Amino acid sequence: MTLPLIELRQVTKLFVSEMDLAAKIAKGIGLSAPREVVHAVDQVDLEVRQGEIVGLVGESGCGKSTLGRIVAGLLQPTKGSIFFDGREISGLKRRESKETALKIQMIFQDPFSSLNPRMRIGDIIGEAPLIHGIVERSEINEYTDRLMLQCGLDPNSKGLYPHQFSGGQRQRIAIARALAVKPEFLVCDEVVSALDVSIQAQVLNLFITLRRELGLTSIFISHNLAVVENVSDKVAIMYLGRIVEQAETEELFDHPLHPYTQALLKEVPSLEKRHMNFLPINGEVPSPIDPPSGCHFHPRCPRLISRCRIERPALHEIMPNHFVACHNPLEEE
Amino acid sequence: MDGPVPTLLVEDLKTYFFTRAGIVKAVDGLNFAIYPGKILGLVGESGSGKSVTAFSIIGLVDPPGRVVGGRILFKGRNISDFSKEQIRRMRGGAISMIFQDSITALNPVLRIDTQLIESIRAHRKINNIDARKKAIEALTHVGIPSPEVRLKSYPHQFSGGMRQRAAIAIAMLNEPSLIIADEPTTALDVTIQAQILFEMQKLCREKMTSLIWITHDLTVVAGLADDICVMYAGRSVEYGSVADVLDRPLHPYTVGLIGSVPSRIRRGRPLYQIPGMTPCLLNLPAGCAFRERCDRADAICRRSPGISVPIPGRYVRCHHPFLE
């Protein structure tokens, strides 16, 4: 069994609100001033094997973007560890982490704010490999050309600025920029969500081609289940900071075992479902500041049993390679 | 279709923007009809003209743009000729609109109750107490919990999904005959979207409200709408029932669009990519705007295709449609 390329063990990220003046005064005179704590990511275990694309799905506030940023090194976890190629990288000193930082790259949702509007795209793509000595100055033009072609961009447009490109093209520039430093792992955060459907298809196809050609490993974050299904080998569903279900893509979509997953899948429209009877999940998504006790999903769960209010369900392997965090999961047909 | 009068009939609508850079033909030939209680999906990508269509119907096209051609018949009356005052009275009353971005639709410095009550009282004689009751009812209908408390909030205190629901509540308040919704759920989660679609479906069924749902998301249209009109570069290129258009598409663009949508049936296979890019509206190719991206195009396509009607209630604008 080879080691997974990325391994997350009990990764937790808490965001604590700043104390305002009233709270500081209260603290000063000995009164308790509870601060708001957001459990953005709550004891997450996740493994990504070499060459795998793991889809991370969930709705707003589920913590998927935060988790993505932690993996990419943009945020430090509050607790827990991250292993890259067997070495622990969480909490590394700056000098050591720079090498790892190059190996893990991130692509963001908004193709308009993630590119420096004052740089020509040739420089946007070529800046990092030059600085890090990956490519010699004499070769940088050819290197950039090759990358651009690979990402479906015209090398002759090297001298243009981001605003001269469409959203889909800018996303390709962002991909080329990420690939320029020869990463081993990509974190893609909602990279096609801001794009029109036909452009989305182009970028997704590019992504799959690159994966095949470069053997890239990746976490693909999205709230769009259809897109995730198309692109991922394995899918993890998140709810309020926790992973509630995880399995290989086909298995998860064909046999969801967690009530949240099942409800989510029922609500996703598709071209084939006509005259849908929309039956929303009961209740609202609770605030991550004050999540429900026990299983976070229990107030909205049709399969609620008394244990669910008290005890947090652990993520365990209910079927081979199919993990669920639920006290009363659905039956496997 | 004879019998009931369509709630809205749009005939060859043209809305142009006269800019210094040239004339932008944002809408350049659009036809559709929608009946009471029915839902029409107006589908197109960025630059297709779908939002400008909505603004044209509701009289919100500002200079340098204006409606330059065609007719808009609301319950049989030509509203493209209406005076500003006549349109203003209609807007929010008989016809209301839900905008894409709820932040811009709601006034940030007014409380939610003020905005709802204001809208109610603008269209009928009613006292504050009764208006407030109606407002609470409206918020309940869109699934906002504890509406009496929430009424006192400001828009920024609501989440994105709740704001959108509040905007929908405002649109539904005066029991309009027609609601135009412009991408209202695009930025929202699947479960919030389901909630909103549930409410809208209920409204149409119970009050026989007509709904035009503008989106680039074909899957929502598939689940929600009765009919669909596909737009490309300002023109309607295909129109028909959802079943007809999605199962037996006629226009190459529609075929391409359907192929681009990730679907369970074609899981694992690469998605179809329509080659090329949407043309710039300032610089449309002569003739069929889609011809440079179409593998069925030939010399005839340099002439604008007219509308062909293979069966009643169905049309396509193409020289080489996929006809059997």
Write a compact overview of the structure shown.
The complex is a heterodimer of chains A (333) and B (324). Chain A is an alpha/beta fold and 333 residues long.
Describe this structure in words.
The complex is a heterodimer of chains A (333) and B (324). Chain A has 333 residues and is an alpha/beta fold. Chain A has a single domain (6-27, 34-113, 185-324), classed as Rossmann fold. Chain A has eleven helices and twelve strands. Chain A has helices at 21-28, 64-71, 94-103, 121-131, 140-150, 167-179, 197-214, 225-231, 249-254, 259-267, 307-310; strands at 6-16, 37-48, 53-57, 79-84, 87-88, 104-107, 185-189, 217-222, 234-239, 242-248, 316-319, 322-324. In chain A, the strands form two sheets. Chain A has an eight-stranded mixed beta sheet, with helices on both faces. Chain A has a four-stranded antiparallel beta sheet with strand order 2-1-4-5, with helices on one face. Chain A is globular and about 65 Å long. Chain A starts with 5 loop residues before the first strand and ends in a 9-residue tail after the last strand. Chain B is α/β, with parallel strands linked by helices. Chain B folds into two domains: 8-94 and 178-317, 3-Layer(aba) Sandwich (Rossmann fold), CATH 3.40.50; 104-175, no CATH class. Chain B has helices at 50-58, 84-90, 102-105, 112-123, 128-141, 147-150, 160-172, 190-207, 218-224, 242-247, 252-260, and strands at 8-19, 22-28, 32-34, 39-43, 65-74, 77-78, 95-98, 178-182, 210-215, 227-232, 235-241, 307-308, 315-317. In chain B, the strands form two sheets. Chain B has an eight-stranded mixed beta sheet, sandwiched between helices. In chain B, strands 1, 2, 3, 5 and 6 form a five-stranded antiparallel beta sheet that branches. In chain B, strand 5 and strand 6 (77-78) form a beta hairpin. The chains are: A alpha/beta (333), B alpha/beta (324). At the A-B interface, helix 7, helix 8, helix 9 and helix 10 of A face helix 8, helix 9, helix 10 and helix 11 of B.
